[in-house]
Amino acid sequence: MGRLLATLAAVGFGLGLGAAALAGFLVWASLPMLEGEIRLAGLGAPARVSRDELGVPLIEAASERDAAMALGFVHAQDRLWQMEINRRIGAGRLAEVVGERGLAVDRFMRTLGLYRAAEASLDHLSAEALDRLAAYAEGVNGFLAQRAGPLPPEFLLLRHRPEPWRPADSLVLIKLMALDLVSSWRSELTRA
Fold first, then answer.
1. What is the pLDDT of residue 108?
2. What is the pTM of this model?
């Protein structure tokens, strides 16, 4: 009996160690490449991204459009899960990722209509602003298209693959942040 327990404990330990090693590898493999050269289709000229000692990206580009594209790429490298989950919250599409638990948030956000407002805002922007938003989206999508390793662990756990980024997605994040910054939105909503 003692030998059986020892064998079971050893097998359990081995399986646990293997699972931990696999999880560690998946997390490591999902980390973005921060050094080297990446070719991003659509850039007018090469852009340079370096990082300071805190990991904050510093972008040097020949044009604002190229800088916006590089910024989209870097944001996707560093914050893809945060971008995806907040885009879905703002669009009222959280339940598509997290299931029934997201339905109440989705109903509320669709009632507020933040994504509709973001799409409507596109019609009121200058051609230059639209171009920057499109370049940013191209950068995010460029990251998604050429990503070599697995997506961050959150995507793997939920078996979710992000959709291509659109200019309205960036605007809905801005509107979501504005809503978050307004401390009186609940009382204003009840008075409306």
1. 94
2. 0.79
